[in-house]
Amino acid sequence: MATQKFSGPSPYKLPATYPKEDYIHTDYVNNVTLNHDVKPPKKPVVAAIFGLGRAGSIHLTSIINNSRIVLKYVVDDRTERFADLKKYWNFGNDVTLLASSDAQRVYNDKEVNVVFIGSPTWTHHDIVVNSIANNKDVFCEKPIAENIEDTKKCYEAAKSKGRVLFSAFNRRFDPSYRALKNRVRNGEVGHVQILKVTARDSPLPSIDYLKTSGGVFHDCLVHDFDMACWVLGELPCRVQASASALIPEVKAIDDFDTIAFLLTYPSGTVVLGDNSRYSAYGYDQRLEVFGNKGMIKVENERPYHSTQAYIGHEGVKESPIYYSFPSRFREGYKNELEHFLDVVTRGVPMEVTDYQTLAISKIATAAEESARTGKSVELDWSKDGIPANYS
Ligand SMILES: NC(=O)c1ccc[n+]([C@@H]2O[C@H](COP(=O)([O-])OP(=O)(O)OC[C@H]3O[C@@H](n4cnc5c(N)ncnc54)[C@H](O)[C@@H]3O)[C@@H](O)[C@H]2O)c1
């Protein structure tokens, strides 16, 4: 009886609200209510995808499941897999599989208006430039090219043709990281004093992949640098990095597998990062911001998040964290694709801009220089055309 007085009005009389953090419910509500604001009726884009390895397979899965895209070409050099690919994905005659030596067919096909690139980094520049020259919008895996000069050429080509060139920094589209960024930008932690980012890869990539990856700073740490600058809306004035190769095969190709870095920002914020090519316990991805008003963290996510612990004589055992990027960033990959389609079909402003991508490439180059020379590198942005409002 003592609590009856708190019962309040019938729930039928209460406004039907739900927490906006439940982005999956929002998606569901949009689908149930046929919300044309989020999915205005538009003709599907006609697409080609280059490269069906680790990254390309993630994008292919999203493309096939997306009603806003009609897939017309798949380009890959492992032609011996084509028969299996056709069978597995149930491709009809409307999907053509080509080796890269026949890629001109894609460029010449006027019906194709978007190109997805998931092929190795060293192939990006040519595919981007050829696609753009033939009036196609491009979704390209990071990094856009092997070096800053080629990346600039890609963006200049896109600008001169008025085409979209999207750099797939998928972590920005992860719901948890995005929520952290929005909360930081709303001032919840005040002025950020320290941002900590941890990114430890799993599983260990093959040595063949690492040989042509462009090195760990351009292949992996670009994500960490982008996270930091995107959250803070600022670019660092000093970069320091220390790195070693503890895995003999990584040392043999003159790359690094164990990296710590420090970025110092003009506003006084300091960013601490640690990155590894190999994490034995899963894909360890964490982010923490600490400011004068508080602290926000994104911890590792787990597939069985509702079954948190097994308790036994040995103590408490939690379920494992996600094993690798396709599972941890599944939502991010889907969201970045939707964003790209919004940019291409609805003119929504692109979130990953040319100057941001170039700035991240410049930070990666400086960090590698710091790791190799043992010196800190000062960065001058005065000639880079960076708007005051970085992100
Ligand atoms: N954003 C991310 O989370 C993420 C994750 C992994 C890789 N990547 C990026 O994706 C790209 C590919 O990496 P990966 O790990 O998928 O490589 P991968 O080696 O697993 O796959 C590359 C595929 O491209 C094919 N290929 C080679 N040359 C080609 C060409 N000229 N045209 C078309 N296909 C060609 C290969 O046959 C192979 O199937 C790299 O740029 C990498 O940096 C991004």
Give a quick precis of the structure.
The protein has 391 residues and is of the alpha/beta class.
SSE blueprint:
Elements: H1 23-32, E1 45-50, H2 54-64, E2 69-75, H3 82-89, E3 96-98, H4 104-108, E4 114-117, H5 121-133, E5 137-141, H6 148-161, E6 165-168, H7 175-185, E7 192-200, H8 207-211, H9 216-232, E8 238-244, H10 248-252, E9 258-264, E10 270-276, E11 284-291, E12 294-298, E13 309-312, E14 315-318, H11 325-328, H12 330-346, H13 354-373, E15 377-378
Parallel strand pairs: 1-2, 1-4, 2-3, 4-5, 5-6, 7-10
Antiparallel strand pairs: 7-11, 8-9, 8-15, 9-10, 11-12, 13-14
Helix pairs in contact: 2-12, 5-6, 6-13, 7-9, 9-13
Bound molecules: nicotinamide-adenine-dinucleotide.
Nicotinamide-adenine-dinucleotide is lined by residues 50-56, 75-78, 100, 118-121, 123, 141-142, 168, 170, 209, 219, 325.
